[in-house]
Amino acid sequence: MSHWDAPSNTTSTDSEPAATSLGLTLFALYTSIYTAFVLISAFRPEWMAKTIAGVNIAVLSGFGLIVGAIVMAAIYLRLCRSASRRS
Fold first, then answer.
1. Is 87's pLDDT higher than 70?
2. Is 37 exposed, middle or buried (0-12, 13-18, 19+ CB in 10 A)?
């Protein structure tokens, strides 16, 4: 038996298109924010060199990107779970 013949443990639900759309929306949002971060870092490094409480904005922005990704993942998980429970 090849892996092509293996039965699938997943089932298709009506919430999959909504989950896909939400995932792509969050991906586009994060990509836009990250692109802005990279462009500002590349073309306006003096903006990133400014400090707040002794830490430069580049470091704070980097941590913000990481926290933002975790928050978006939690939002996605929560909304997808609630949608799959309704169907």
1. no
2. middle
Q: 29: Cβ–Cβ under 8 A, 6 or more apart, which residues? A: 72
Query: How many Å apart are CA 75 and CA 34, to the nearest integer?
Result: 18
26 token code pair: 């969050």
State the Cα–Cα distance between residues 60 and 47, nearest whole angstrom.
12
Distance between CA 54 and CA 38 in Å, rounded?
Answer: 22
User: For position 86, what pLDDT does the model report?
Assistant: 72
Q: Would you say how long the chain is, in residues? A: 87
Q: What percentage of the chain has pLDDT greater than the value 90?
A: 67
Phi and psi (nearest 5°) for 57? -65, -30
Residue type at 16 in one-letter notation: E
Instruction: Please state the separation of Cα 82 from the chain's center in Å.
Output: 19
Which pLDDT score is estimated for 29? Answer: 97
